[in-house]
Amino acid sequence: MIGGLFIYNHKGEVLISRVYRDDIGRSVCLTGFTGRWRNAVDAFRVNVIHARQQVRSPVTNIARTSFFHVKRSNIWLAAVTKQNVNAAMVFEFLYKMCDVMTAYFGKISEENIKNNFVLIYELLDEILDFGYPQNSETGALKTFITQQGIKGQTKEEQSQITSQVTGQIGWRREGIKYRRNELFLDVLESVNLLMSPQGQVLSAHVSGRVMMKSYLSGMPECKFGMNDKIVIDKQGKGGTTDDPGKSGKQSIAIDDCTFHQCVRLSKFDSERSISFIPPDGEYELMRYRTTKDIILPFRVIPLVREVGRTKLEVKVVIKSNFKPSLLAQKIEVRIPTPLNTSGVQVICMKGKAKYKASENAIVWKIKRMAGMKESQISAEIELLPTNDKKKWARPPISMNFEVPFAPSGLKVRYLKVFESKLNYSDHDVIKWVRYIGRSGIYETRC
Amino acid sequence: LKVINCCVWDPSGEIFELKAELNSDKKEKKKEAVKKVIASMTVGKDVSALFPDVVNCMQTDNLELKKLVYLYLMNYAKSQPDMAIMAVNTFVKDCEDPNPLIRALAVRTMGCIRVDKITEYLCEPLRKCLKDEDPYVRKTAAVCVAKLHDINAQLVEDQGFLDTLKDLISDSNPMVVANAVAALSEIAESHPNSNLLDLNPQTINKLLTALNECTEWGQIFILDCLANYMPCDDRESQSICERVTPRLSHANSAVVLSAVKVLMKFMEMLPKDLDYYGTLLKKLAPPLVTLLSAEAELQYVALRNINLIVQKRPEILKHEMKVFFVKYNDPIYVKLEKLDIMIRLASQANIAQVLAELKEYATEVDVDFVRKAVRAIGRCAIKVEQSAERCVSTLLDLIQTKVNYVVQEAIVVIKDIFRKYPNKYESVIATLCENLDSLDEPEARAAMIWIVGEYAERIDNADELLESFLEGFHDESAQVQLQLLTAIVKLFLKKPTETQELVQQVLSLATQDSDNPDLRDRGYIYWRLLSTDPVAAKEVVLAEKPLISEETDLIEPTLLEELICHIGTLASVYHKPPSAFVEGSRGVQHKRLPARAGSCLLYSPAASHFMGAGLGVAPAAMPASLGGAPAVGGGLGDLFDLGGGVGMPTGSYVAPKTVWLLAIKAKGLEISGTFARRGGIIQMDLSLTNKAMSVMTDFAVQFNRNSFGLAPAGPMQVLTPLSPNQTIDVSLPLSMSGPVMKMEPLNNLQVAVKNNIDVFYFSCQYPLSLLFVEDGRFYRQVFLATWKDIPNDSEAQFQIKDIHLNSDVASNKLQGSNIFTIAKRTVEGQDMLYQSIKLTNGIWVLAEMRIQTGNPNYTLSIKCRAPEVCQFVYQCYELVLKN
């Protein structure tokens, strides 16, 4: 299991160090605290943080000790072990650790960590025992790790805390009350594309998330339904004489999905229904991935021409491919330029375009664009003559955007709330649903 | 201690100030002071001098302050053991606190203090906390047992904590169950032979129930533990798989990977024609693909694991090539891994796409990645014959870029392509020669020289080219020197007239001026060959070369099997067994996949059939008389304390391979082999050698009926064709589920091996020790009664001659082969060892071995209800003791 956990700043100075196992740095056993971990801590600093090369692996083995690390802005989190631990678990834990810290004090920065080090130690003590991850749901943790000291807890309150931390529904406490029961549901999709210069789709997929904010009283039982092809087909067979072609269009094929731990997986496996008792506040209910029948909101058509050895002519056309009534926003097209670019002239029909020398790219921004429209940019790039034999690698043209629909075609069919003990019904809950499609890695080779 | 305190270097008076603050009356000030102490501790300052002052703050009802003091204690107690005792009272008191959070905190912290004197005081509070009414305290106490075990294993066993921990597996609270499982698994790892976890269908059922209810981390502990279980038959295996598959949709990637591990392992036992087997295969692909949309670090872990899974079961991901396409912004470690998997998945169906991608990658920035991409193109050419031509032309395009490292890498792979497809692509040689000057890496130079030598007759200026390398002969690396030597000799054999001078020059350079023995030796061999018999030289140097195989980088099958058992862990990331990077006893055990179907030997139909023939004693009858009654008769009773066995078993003896099938009798196929029992699995280790001129493929194996129903547990895994003069080692797992027929001799086995040429038959004999099971330890109380019960005429006596071992070493050796010494008695300088053996079909064998000090001849008496086995048991004794 995890033997120790360290947090470093970008210089490699230790901000937090918590040793769980004696085997870490056992070889050097000097006096007291410093001697015990000095060895492992230094090894990581020298070999990873101060290494000249870019990181070649997130797992490093130095002197029979394994270091796992993740980086958040310029802070390094490292877990150390001498055993054959579950590597996936260690990384999941490190991410979780970041989530918990963010939930308690916001951004993970050197200053925040220094200001909250007592709290971090307290958290580390609670969520990692002898290197075994324990309940790390912030909802539960916040009931008893508060930094204000727990005063005057009654016996009932104490046992409520412990039963929640260890219980089956570790993510929600009892006795939550809201005057207005509300639910916010965001379907966030990122659409990924890799297209050849000729316009052939090399790969495309949508990775989506269903984010939920729930403000519900009591212990509500929820049921979530979407236009999942498997479910719709099953119902179609059930009896209604729906036109099969029609139902085929309305449903989508989900390649795979994963769920928040509140969802009853065995029920999904057997009946493909998504039922759960939700955590309070914001959380990610599910993630999914689709590859079939994706609506690609934009098409990029590049044209690059080399004119002699010192000039490039670039023309890029973008076409929007969705209902004219909808508006795409925050559109950005990034056209890479060679390293030996000396000057660029750009003309675009719409939006603003600029050559950014530091990024080696022309960045073309358009605030809004309706569906079924087309726009164009052309640029002349002057090059310095070089002796470099190596050809320019021509990185792909990438795009960013946001559209108000789900490119996968996913639709929320229902979200039902049942709370038998309290006096509110599904109709009393106010529900909000929103679809946002964003570009993931949306690239066209040129 | 006082002296030390005075000596602490404290220039700013910081320690002194803190000391004053710690002793302040005001609670807030105290707390702030402790915070400052912890802050100093974190940055590495030595604040151990404040130990007594900090410990004084421990008695408080402020939980936050208490936690801080505990944190300090955990770090410094070891360096100040005497003072740490001061804290014990508070700990013990806190373990009785009405607040469960405080009770848990106390027991959690106490376990982290590694001071012997304190551990003694820990036992009583821990015992109470393990039975606490509050689950939060129990789950903390469960982990504490593991902590205590790490400090003092003996103490944990003596105090009976392991049993309490086992009881917690049936706890009503899922988190308690999960932590107990985690703690037990870890403790069991350091006791490889103990049956600590005692996994049986009932416990498995409990674990599967808890799996649905506990936290994500708990699910990981439970799944990792489940993976160590060996289901009894394929039905049980299937039902566990069914209950584990829902985990594949969990948001936590570690849960998914651990579930994949369980499924990959238990799938081994399912018959391939089962519908469910196909369903399961289909269910595995989507979650594996989903792992690739996780954060980069997890993607890396997933890809390393997918690399293993693809090698074990290529069918799972064969349609998913596209998801492994590299993205421009992937971190380099993700890119390199994806590339590896792309090559593994490359096939005729997708090769066009793959090649287009690889060409794209070869123009990227990162040198390592580009090199690997170029190498990948070469590997595709070798793997997919239909694509070879396209690959070669792609490589030529890349050579035209003139990027130095691309050119060099391309030449190295083109050499391999020439090896695979001789006399097919010589037209490209001219292009290669143009780049001769730019090659500065030994591997590329060596490859180029090889090509020139190999095709010397078609390159007009081959002599000039090779001569140009000769100028700086001594500055070249050994690899290049060797190639140059061979290439010039080849050239000479092909064009003897013009190159005599050149060959003489290189021979003298190699033999006279070099201090590299390999080079000298090779030089001398060529020289003598050329001077004595040029025709023979031609036959040797220009001999037809065996074809190279496509999958040279596959992980060796036994290692692959072991790594599959470690999916998700560091071992699967490093692609190394745990023993390669873990110190001490942990992880030294090698895990293995279960054998397909019917591995539950005792209850297999074959076994009962054999017993039905009137042999053997029903196995279930044996342990029945377990009662506490001391053993009857003689002085035996007080000697029966050998139960635990002496030291570690040395492992079973495996005879060296002997030739079973001669090449002349089998159209060039030679088979040698031996039998082994490894971790309860019977294996037939075979070496197949191709002594014919053509490639052999399509191997299969079958056994004739035999005395114990031995049968191959799966098909023989010969993945690559066997080229001429190549030898492949295969391990064939055997099961006991085959048809039974008594053979003469009893341990005779008739085998049929088929390949693309013909079917061949041979027979071999296996040592009976192959069938000695791991749980063959007889209950000593019933040993004597059974001994008496078996009629004397079934007793056989043998002499084992010329053994120079003392009785302890002998019994230790025997135990390695599952011959268990259950008692020892010494009478008048004569050691009597009482031993028991159980065969896979439930037959018990009892033995008495007499060893006289100074006499190298042992006397062995064997009793068994099936007297025909005695002779073979004796052979095993002799085999084991003499080796």
From TrEMBL, chain A:
GO molecular function: lipid binding
Subcellular location: Cell membrane; Membrane, Coated pit
Pfam short name (any one): Adap_comp_sub
Any one GO biological process: intracellular protein transport
PROSITE patterns found in the cross-reference section: CLAT_ADAPTOR_M_1 (PS00990), CLAT_ADAPTOR_M_2 (PS00991), MHD (PS51072)
Family, as annotated: Belongs to the adaptor complexes medium subunit family.
PANTHER family: AP COMPLEX SUBUNIT MU (PTHR10529)
Subunit text: Adaptor protein complex 2 (AP-2) is a heterotetramer composed of two large adaptins (alpha-type subunit and beta-type subunit), a medium adaptin (mu-type subunit) and a small adaptin (sigma-type subunit).
Protein name: AP-2 complex subunit mu-A
Organism: Sinocyclocheilus anshuiensis
From TrEMBL, chain B:
Protein name: AP-1 complex subunit beta-1-like
Gene3D superfamilies in the record: 2.60.40.1150, Leucine-rich Repeat Variant (1.25.10.10), TATA-Binding Protein (3.30.310.10)
Entry keywords, A to Z: Acetylation, Membrane, Protein transport, Transport
GO biological process, one term: intracellular protein transport
Organism, as annotated: Sinocyclocheilus anshuiensis
Stored PANTHER family: ADAPTOR COMPLEX SUBUNIT BETA FAMILY MEMBER (PTHR11134)
Lineage start: Eukaryota, Metazoa, Chordata, Craniata, Vertebrata
Limits of the Beta-adaptin appendage C-terminal subdomain domain: 772-882
Clathrin adaptor alpha/beta/gamma-adaptin appendage Ig-like subdomain domain sequence ranges: 653-763
One GO CC annotation: endomembrane system
Subcellular locations according to the entry: Endomembrane system
UniProt-listed InterPro entries: AP_beta, ARM-like, ARM-type_fold, B-adaptin_app_sub_C, Clathrin/coatomer_adapt-like_N, Clathrin_a/b/g-adaptin_app_Ig, Clathrin_app_Ig-like_sf, Clathrin_b-adaptin_app_Ig-like
Keyword Ligase applies: no
Protein family (similarity comment): Belongs to the adaptor complexes large subunit family.
Membrane-spanning intervals of the chain: none
Membrane topology of this protein: Peripheral membrane protein
